[in-house]
Amino acid sequence: MSVSFVAESRLPTPYGEFIMHGFEESGTGKEHLALTMGDVSQGEPVLARVHSECLTGDALFSMRCDCGPQLQAALEKIAKEGRGVLLYLRQEGRGIGLLNKVRAYHLQDQGRDTVQANEELGFEPDQRRYDMCKTMLDHLGVSSLKLMTNNPKKVDSLTELGIEVVERIPHQTGQNPHNQKYLETKVWKLGHMYNMA
């Protein structure tokens, strides 16, 4: 699936001013964003976050996950460094979509964990893909990353695409009583690196 650049604009935020770059997937019409701050094309490794859309966490302040706090912390860290990139990928619910995510939450309300709920609905535990990242980063002139993530599989996926990840920066934030089981499941079933203490 190819992705092409569409347009860019300024994006003032509480953390500072970013440049927002819009991309569109051919075939699906799915839209993705890159937010950049500073000169990311100079060749030095860039502080980066690859963030998959989570409407409930990013926009509705859900405490069932840690997505919203992760997004905010990434923007804050990039602004503090004065240079970085955040890729915002439109793949809600680890790739199952918003309404299926609501169905999965209903199953979680009945006692399933996040992996069991996805599987019961006929999905893989994590259906996200990252192939669009290579084209987006190439467009921005970014060749190597200092990646903010707790997910080593994300590092592996980007590396397989030819993106150099020179450092994995732990990105732990947003832990609360409502997402304890969710975070534990990500550690024990999905291999995320997270200190649950």
Structure description:
The structure is a single chain. The protein has 197 residues and is of the alpha/beta class. It is 37% helix and 26% strand. It is built from 8 helices and 7 strands, in the order E-E-E-E-H-H-E-H-H-H-H-E-H-E-H. The protein is globular and about 50 Å long.
Mean pLDDT: 89
Specify the structural class: alpha/beta
Termini Cα gap: 40 Å
Q: Which range best describes the helical content: under 10%, 10-25%, 25-40%, 40-55%, 55-70% or over 70%?
A: 25-40%
> How many individual helices?
8
Number of strands: 7
Strand % is 25-35%
Largest sheet: 7 strands, mixed
Strand order of the largest sheet: 1-2-3-5-4-6-7
Taking all Cα atoms into account, the compactness measure Rg is 16 Å
The residue ranges in which pLDDT falls below 50 over 5 or more consecutive positions are none
Envelope shape = globular
**Order of secondary-structure elements:** EEEEHHEHHHHEHEH
Keyword list:
197 residues, alpha/beta, seven-stranded mixed β-sheet, 8 helices, 26% strand
Short description:
With 197 residues, this protein is α/β, with parallel strands linked by helices. It is built from eight helices and seven strands; from the N terminus they run ββββααβααααβαβα.
List the helices and strands and how they pair.
Blueprint: E1 3-13, E2 16-25, E3 31-37, E4 46-52, H1 55-59, H2 67-81, E5 84-89, H3 92-95, H4 98-109, H5 114-120, H6 131-140, E6 144-148, H7 152-160, E7 164-169, H8 180-190
Parallel strand pairs: 4-5, 4-6, 6-7
Antiparallel strand pairs: 1-2, 2-3, 3-5
Helix pairs in contact: 4-5
